[in-house]
Amino acid sequence: MANNNSISKVLSGILILFFLECSTGQLYPNYYYSSCPPVTDIVKTITESAIAYDTRMGASLLRLFFHDCFVKGCDGSVLLDDTTTFTGEKTAKPNNGTLRGFEVIDQIKQAVDEACPGVVSCADILAVAARDSVVTLGGPYWEVKLGRRDSRGASISKANKDLPTPTSSLTTITSKFADQGLSLKDMIALSGAHTIGKAKCVNFRSHVYKDSNKNRFFSGFRQSICPPVNGTGDDNLAPLDMITETRFDNSYFQNLVAFNGLLHSDQELFNGGPADLQVLLYSNWQEAFFSDFVEGMIKMGDIKPLTGSKGEIRRNCRKRN
Ligand code: HEM
Ligand SMILES: *[C@@H]1O[C@H](CO)[C@@H](O)[C@H](O)[C@H]1NC(C)=O
Ligand SMILES: *[C@@H]1O[C@H](CO)[C@@H](O)[C@H](O)[C@H]1NC(C)=O
Fold it and tell me: Domain containing 228 — which CATH number?
């Protein structure tokens, strides 16, 4: 039977844990424990139904989170719409016409705000939706650290400068990740996100026509849906992973080893350089990929969050308050 002494021991244990969590990082998984208990269930339910309706949506939400975090940190800046007096990041070159999923984030935000008005940031919703997308498509689960606040600004110039492009070399990609505090190993693991989703012809044309480090049969198939002349069929889509495009697994790395990478930047990871060994490892060992991917996602989610009194909790993810 519990006596006063054991109860106070348990209570002080809980308090110590609470302070440890708050002091070790600014973000922590239980951030909404008392202010919005249903938030994780709401995000999960809506993310799952969006993916049931359109399988590609899981990929689109994961990419949205990456493009948020790499530009001024994970602060929801990517979600802001352009207005006559405000320039967001949506028309930056790596984003324009290829980012998807904004309506799903709006829908989640609306449901979350009905349950707990004005408490949960758009940046956190995006972080949880990205995790739930990975899990729904068969990938690993991890606890998402929370407590990010939303930015009041955006930067189109940083979006153009800080995001890697499909024509980037391994050196350029590596240095863009290093600029965010992410290692070569993190970069390779995170690139495994290309095990799901699609890319437009405009982004893989030069690789399948001009590069020589490619499988001929694979590039022949991709050429057949992507006309050679710039400006023709630019929006035609092909899966980033030719083996299992809607399953989060390690087949992206198996593609690279067989020179079936869709983007120039993908095949850069297996082209006789310093990433080769890790790509080979992941192509043979899915568990190693999953555990490094999780580590990379947590690190990426920690990029420059706004906490405390910085930023705001947006009422509408597309507009500052
Ligand atoms: C390593 C450097 C990277 C480059 C150069 C790159 C570039 C691209 C490009 C060009 C597309 C196709 C966009 C389109 O044509 O619609 C794409 C799609 C995608 N990217 Fe990346 N990416 C990189 C890393 C990442 C990372 C780190 C993640 C997430 C952790 C990610 C997640 C995705 C996903 C899921 C898609 C498919 C999106 C969809 O189907 O809507 N990428 N990426
Ligand atoms: C964005 O894409 C649209 C259509 O895809 C195009 O008309 C527009 O010029 C592009 N904007 C920028 C800034 O590149
Ligand atoms: C087509 O576009 C690519 C990449 O945008 C460029 O490098 C190339 O010079 C263009 N080719 C022509 C014929 O304009």
Answer: 1.10.420.10
